[in-house]
Amino acid sequence: MTGLITMLIAVLALIGVKWQIDASARLQQEQSARDIYREYLNLSIARPELANPDYCAIRDTVQHAGYENYVEYLLYTGDQLLTASALWEPTLNEHLIPHREYLCAQQDWSDDTPQIRGLMTRFQAGQCKGFVSACKD
Questions:
Q1: 65 in any annotated domain
Q2: Of 98, 93, 87, 90, which is closest to residue 134 (Cα–Cα)?
Q3: pLDDT, tens only, 58-90
Q4: What DSSP designation does 135 have?
Q5: Which of 43, 68, 46 is nearest to 58 (CA)?
Q6: Is the pLDDT of residue 119 over 80?
Q7: Which residues contact 82 (CB under 8 A, 6 or more apart)?
């Protein structure tokens, strides 16, 4: 009987350790996501022309590469936030709207993570149907 009790205590201790490790990993992931979001906001403050672009004006200029990298950083930030919690999606959508001109033209999200593919599928379904580009070709 004592051996059974000892074994039960050992199993419960292992479950407790696993729970603590998982909780610590979750907290670390959430903190990392918040840190990345803070960096994204700082970049947006430092470069407002990227955060709220005149896409048609920069589309065929050297600034376009910097803009594409900015949007890529936004999507990376989104991936980190969505991995931490799906509750970030409305916030991300607000940040995506100023980039609708660019994002609605993108069709292939296959190289992105499942979180970003899902986010972009939902964003494009809501924002791109019937969208007509303001850019003159």
A1: yes
A2: 98
A3: 999 999 999 999 999 999 999 999 999 999 999
A4: S
A5: 68
A6: yes
A7: 88, 89, 92, 115, 116, 119
How far is the C-alpha of 35 from the C-alpha of 101, rounded, in Å?
28
Query: What is the pTM assigned to this prediction?
Result: 0.81
Question: Which is it for the CA torsion 61, 64, 65, 67, positive or negative?
Answer: positive
Supply the pLDDT for residue 95: 97
What is the average pLDDT value for the chain, to the nearest integer?
Answer: 89
Q: How many domains does the chain have?
A: 1
Identify whether the C-beta of residue 133 lies closer than 8 Å to the C-beta of residue 106. Answer: no
User: Looking at the domain assignment, is residue 53 inside a domain?
Assistant: yes
Would you say residue 9 lies in a domain? no
